[in-house]
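Reference record
================
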Amino acid sequence: MDTRRAIVVAAAERFAVVGYHGARLSEIVSLSGVTKGAMYFHFPNKEAVADAVIAATDESFAALLADLTAHEWDPLDTVVVLTEQVVDRVRHDPVVRGGVRLLNDAAVAVRHGAAHYRFAEQSVAAPLREAAAAGALREGVDVAVLARQIATLMAGHNLICGRSGTLGELPARVTAMWDALLPLIASEDWLDQHRNRA
């Protein structure tokens, strides 16, 4: 692992546990195994380290979305799989876990959260529009509103699990979310096909 990446990973691990204000640069230096000089060569201050963790988180989610959209899956299935893969990264990728904690930290610039959640809504809205065009959604479903609700539910479940130390419950929460949502938003034809695939 190169020096910069080692610092970003160590910082993300601390931010995930104690938040922005709770993490000290001396702890990040110690955890990363680099020298203080190496830290300051790459990052002038803790804000710059936090920015790098958030940027790496955004890159991870963008790569995930690109990978999923490269497959020619049913668009509504794509949305479900996207949320499942987000959960997997939050649970198993320390950089993503730290980045998500920072995005919801009051000490971090609002612009980061605004850009991230706008991207989340747009990422869900695009396949939902395809699903609507393919007849997979019920008549009258407002795609923009639905995308906002899915992004909000995902953020809420993650926040609750992250702050209550129950990240292991996140997959079951997201499964339950879809169990509740799909009968309300999906067409009967899509639901029938979905049941047959299950």
Q: What stands out?
A: The chain has a mean pLDDT of 93.
